[in-house]
Write a structure and sequence with these properties.
The chain is of the alpha/beta class. The chain has 24 helices and 11 strands. The chain is elongated.
Length: 501
């Protein structure tokens, strides 16, 4: 019979053991709860050069901090120099890849120059034959050496992609047997470079297209991954048919399993059916269930969901699904930008403040009605007493009288309308000054002539002894007085014989 001490010890041991088992179960629980596909390397084609590299962290933030582990770009297929890797943008991608060990660099490599020039089947067959005979081996050795020198010897090479279609000059259909021989030579040439660790991805179009892609398969020894480019288009009316059709998604999975290969989706996205959120949902679910080595969505219009803004419903599904794959601690990261949102709301109350000084109470319009006031006051003393005798000298003090009248209204207002006294000053001399000047000859010439009551003096007859000179008092005074003239009678005497007429 065990002693109480032994019973206590055994009890403690049992408790600790049960605790460890419970702890192990608790630690294992998150693994079961993790979303399917959360450990799959994911990426997107964002641009072929440095812009594509620069956009990766922005896409990651849009996905709530999800890590983008795949960088994907293409070599140009117009000339052999590009296929050899003689392009500067490879350096940016190599730098991004070397920054973290768990990243993957995927590079699409054409098998022919003039790759998108729509060459005829006869031309393509001739090029395939040349490649199968080894004429292009050197180009691919140079590419392999370039990648090793850049520090990316483990690049995934998507060689001769979509070979079962009709788009590219490196297509398989015109000569499948020589095409497979050509593939084998390319792989052998690149693997001959010291330091290489390349993985070769055989990636046809989904469906049969121009030729069943299994007819182009070059062999297990020269293929590491069996990929597939799958866009939302025919063949197949919906996603179920994309799975079950000949050479479809299920055929790819079964073929890879039979050959002991991993699968991939180097290109996938929307296309013919527009903003199809159901396609995106089903494709992400398929990826999560079958766990490819990697997948990259083609993120430009019409295929994409982040850079392409014409697919908002698909973008919503894509973002929600991939954000849910992220473990719990990532949730606070999208919360951080939300408090930043109210900060731009603060300047909105600042907007009404400039509206307050806008009251047009400072009445600069007040001096404008005051200006005409002195103008009618000036002519009132002038119409009757001034015209005949008083004009020559006493008129001078009259302009002095209105000047003191002007300052009296202005100081009663605000000191701002200072320019107001400047306005009447030119108005006063205009009517007063011309009055005395034409009035001076009137008393000197004819003090006895009574021309004033005559509104329109009669014209004297011919050979008359009376001479009349019209007087001009200015337009304003002439309207008040009427037309006037000074007449002078000269008697030469009829008998003098001096009368000229």
């Amino acid at each position: 019979m065990p002693t109480p001490r032994r019973r206590l010890a055994s009890t403690c041991i049992g408790t600790v053991t049960a605790g460890l088992l419970a702890t192990g179960a608790a630690l294992a629980e998150p693994e079961r709860d993790r979303a399917q596909g959360s450990d799959i390397a994911m990426g997107a084609y964002l641009d072929y050069g440095p812009n594509g590299v620069a956009r990766i962290p922005h896409l990651s933030r849009w996905l709530g901090g999800k890590e983008i582990r795949v960088g994907h770009t293409y070599l140009p297929g117009d000339r052999w120099a590009g296929i050899e890797g003689g392009v500067s943008f490879l350096e940016s991608w190599a730098q991004w890849r070397r920054a973290r060990d768990d990243r993957m660099f995927v590079l699409n490599v054409p098998m022919q120059e003039r790759n998108e020039e729509r060459l005829s089947d006869r031309q393509v067959a001739r090029l395939i034959g040349a490649g199968a005979s080894g004429q292009y081996d050197l180009h691919f050795k140079r590419l392999a050496a370039r990648l090793v020198d850049l520090g990316v010897p483990d690049t995934v090479i998507v060689l001769g992609w979509e070979m079962n279609g009709t788009t590219y000059s490196h297509r398989c259909g015109p000569d499948p047997e020589n095409w497979k021989a050509y593939w084998r030579r390319v792989v052998a040439s690149m693997r001959s470079v010291p330091g290489q660790e390349f993985l070769f991805d055989f990636a046809p179009n989904r469906g049969k297209d121009a030729i069943g892609w299994t007819s182009c398969y070059p062999g297990d020894d020269v293929v590491d991954i069996i990929g597939m480019d799958s866009y939302d288009q025919g063949p197949g009316r919906d996603f179920d048919e994309q799975i079950t059709q000949p050479y479809g998604l299920q055929h790819q999975v079964d073929f890879a399993k039979a050959h002991g290969k991993e699968i991939s989706y180097p290109e996938w996205g929307l296309y013919r059916r527009g903003d199809n959120a159901e396609y995106v949902r089903r494709m992400l679910k398929w990826i999560g269930e079958h766990k490819p080595l990697y997948h990259t969505i083609t993120d430009y219009c019409p295929h994409g969901v982040w850079q392409c803004k014409q697919n908002p419903q698909s973008a919503k599904v894509f973002r929600k699904t991939l954000r849910e794959e992220k473990p719990g601690p990532v949730i606070p990261t999208p919360v951080v930008p939300t408090p930043v949102v109210p900060t731009p709301v603060v300047p909105t109350p600042v907007v009404p403040t400039p509206v307050v000084p806008s009251p047009t109470v400072p009445t600069p319009q007040v001096p404008t009605p005051e200006v005409p006031k002195p103008s009618p006051e000036v002519p009132e003393p002038t119409p009757t007493p001034v015209p005949s005798p008083v004009v020559p000298t006493p008129v001078v003090p009259t302009p002095v009288v209105p000047t003191p009248e002007l300052p009296t209204p202005t100081p009663s207002r605000v000191p701002t309308p200072v320019p107001s006294p400047v306005v009447p000053s030119p108005v006063v001399p205009s009517p007063v000054v011309p009055k005395p000047e034409p009035a001076t000859p009137a008393p000197t010439r004819t003090p006895t002539a009574p021309p004033q009551p005559l509104p329109d003096p009669p014209t004297p007859p011919v050979n008359s002894t009376q001479w009349c000179i019209p007087l001009n008092f200015g337009e304003w005074l002439s309207k008040l007085v009427g037309k006037q003239s000074v007449c002078v009678t000269v008697d030469w005497g009829e008998g003098s014989g001096f009368w000229p007429f």
